[in-house]
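re: ur question from earlier - yeah i can do the single chain one, its not a big deal. heres the input i used so u can compare w yours
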Amino acid sequence: MIEYGIDMRGRPLRIVSTSVYVSFQKQILVVLSTLVFSLNSTVVAAGENPGKISVEAFAALPATQEVALSPGGRKLALLTTSIESHNAVTLLVIYDVVRSTVKTLLTSGNEKYVPIGVQWENERELLLGVGYPETRGTTRTYETRMLVLDVESGESRPAFNRKYLKRNRVVPPQFQNSIVDPLRGLDGRVLVSLADRDPQLRRVVELNTQTGYGAIVQPPIRGALRWWTDRQHNVRLVLKKTRGGFALQHKPSGEGARWQQISEFRTIAAAPFYPLGFDEHPDTLFVFGEHDGKKAVFKMNTASFPELESELFYALERRDIDGTLIYSHALNRVVGLNESNPPVTRFWDPDFQLLKKAVDEQFPDRDNSFLGFSNDGASCLLFSTNQTDPGSYYYGEEECTVFQRIARRYDDLPERLMAPSQSVHLKVEDGFEFEASLTLPLGRSGPYPMIVIPESSIFARTERGFNHTTQFFASRGYAVMQVPYRRTSRQEAVESSRPVGALSPKMHDDVVTATEWATSHGMADPDRICLYGKDIGGFAALTQVVLYPKLYKCVMTYAAVTDLKSLVSWYGQYTNYREISDLLSLESNAKQGASPVERAADFRTGVLLVHGDRDRIIDVSQSRRLSKALAKAGKDAALIELKNGSHNLSYEPNRVELMRAAETFFEHYLSPDPWVEKREVTSAQ
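and the output i got, formated as tokens:
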């Protein structure tokens, strides 16, 4: 056993990785017989062409999708991928650390029903969310349910008893896994948000996981979207929809308190602050707010409401901070925050900062994230990753001084063959500055054939950590430039009718700026550049080739927005229509005829559209409409529909089909250079 640094109390920090990882993996293989972590095991010798890594290895579902630590710290729940009859399935596996045993509780083929999150209720019971596409009348929906699983007996049951829902005259709610508060320490009970017969009315119930019956702890509020409880498990905050946008309401601590509105805003991005959660004191609330133009953490005293008195608590110098609070049950206070992009923990508690420092010294140049602590703080769960390593999960014991590697996220993507990314700081003619991400292929020299990827979602930022799509393209010999979406600032919102956070009409200038920078700096071959985009990123990619046909040879999209007018109609049947419409400026853009489907005659490049036929986020009709318009205009275009395909590609055969299509399509238009074992490293700096 090797000692590395010291922990928060001055003791040696020890990492025990390989032996434990191998023995745990062998146990799974023995118990499950069929469990392997990808479709095809890929063995690549050092110095070998990254292109030899199979499409299946990149397209595979993660070998380990999620890991959760039990409250007592002696059991782990893992969502893993296995192969059964040549098909990938998801397994819910329980690893008992004390007994060194492995048990499988559930298997899902993901063709319709997909596990979407696992959470411990107590040492014996798990709560598992399940998502699936459904149709209510003529409306196509995405539904969720929640299961209760007994880890000892292996039995499972629906979290909500049908008789309870029927007795309360509740139509089966669309979403049944919205946990408000796990009530940690109160076995067999959990607070859940549940819609009434009118889906606009949502209440909070205390669910008895043994009986499936619930007791109302918060009566329904119209438009309620999200609830927050304090550490004493009282419902204290609600985010609700209003006719003009959104509102935050607060209920003071104490008996008989009534709800009071504290702020109202058109979009979430325009909120003066957004709740993170409460500290141990019922009036201490952590929130996100703006500091020097960037998102930061503030501390508020809710007793001062409706005045918004706050103090800056934690901020980063160069960028926004985002994530979820980390609460120590052992110390009874909030000790830090977990970011998701990249996955990294930021502690502000001095003792935990020492622990993080010791871990970072053992895993240098990596993003290290603590995913959970046991109630007594003696055990923890760590995830460690970087741009070229999909990451590993480690179990920490002896007050997190000894770490054992228990699983890898992907087994068939060798870190030594993944291409590092670098940030590129760019400035547009109008003075706007942004940061793009550039990945250069290994074993080749520039200028490279390039794939430009506009940011894929209005609700997410370009991934800063490991990105398997980017790595797949780089392994095939392409440079990859990822461009973030420009969003409307508060100042721009004052000067225009667009709300804060909405997509800026100048986003296309940013993509062109990134493309021209790449060609002028020898990173991209100007005759071999294509675009790839997903959902709203697909809209940007398609629009880009129409506006700048001389810059790009082809465009490929997955689940792209192509027709804003039909999207307005599509989202009009859902409760989140106004939010989506504002963020995408749907109505104004639709009136201006800005949709790719309306400009089919202007396409001058090859087009490949791919879409899942069960997509409940962006309906498949979007790609069908553009495909039909392009065919009518006599353009070089094709459409591939993925059978049983969801928006997030949860069914592995769909992922394989998408990547195989991408490999063939881009090879046809970009003709990547042959790989050579040695090359001079090119830097964008």
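Residues 1-46, 678-685 have pLDDT under 50 and may be disordered. not sure if urs matches, ping me
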